[in-house]
Amino acid sequence: MSDSVVSPEGNFPMRIPRLVTAAVAAVLAMTACGSNAESGDSGSGGEAAGEFKPLARVEIIAPAAPGSGWDQTARAVQEAMKTGGLARSVEVTNVPGASGTVALAQVAPQKGKSDLLIASGLAMMSGIITNGTDVNLDDLTPLARVVGEYEVIVVPKDVPFNNADELFAAIKADPKSVAVAGGSAGSADQIFIGLLAQHYGVKPADVNYVPYSGGGEATTALLGGKVQAGVAGLNEFAEQIKTGNLKGLLISSTDPVEGVTFAQTATQIDPKLEFQNWRSIMAPGGIDDALKGQYVDALTRMHEGPDWSAALKKNGWNDNFLAGDEFATWLKEENARVQTVLADLGLAKQAG
Question: What is the pTM for the complete model shown?
Answer without folding.
Answer: 0.79
